[in-house]
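Usage

Read records sequentially. Each one opens with the input sequence:
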Amino acid sequence: MTAAPSLCLSQVDDVALSHPATCDRNVGMSPRKFSQRNKVLTYRQQFAGRWSDFIRANFESPEHAAMIFGVDGSTAKKWWAGSHAPSGFAVGYAYEHFRDQALCQLKAAA
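and closes with the structure output:
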């Protein structure tokens, strides 16, 4: 009977050390692309704050917002706290059903 080959930790470590850049998403990106990515992330973070202001001003609670937008309570709580921005469907729904408020509160400062 032949024993199955074993994979020892030293072999795994050797592979991981020989390819350290494979887990870093920013490796290989030009400075311009990295700069654009930071701008997008900053916009997302700022939009999450504007969305939170919109939700707080127009709904009684996270649960009320969850019911109107058809999302989980945990999602609405994250919106309420400003820690997460919505997906496109929620923004579209806001503009369709709460047009005046959305136009006023979701617009980025010039």
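Summary fields computed downstream for this record:
- The two ends are 75 Å apart (CA to CA).
- Confidence is low (pLDDT under 50) at residues 5-26.
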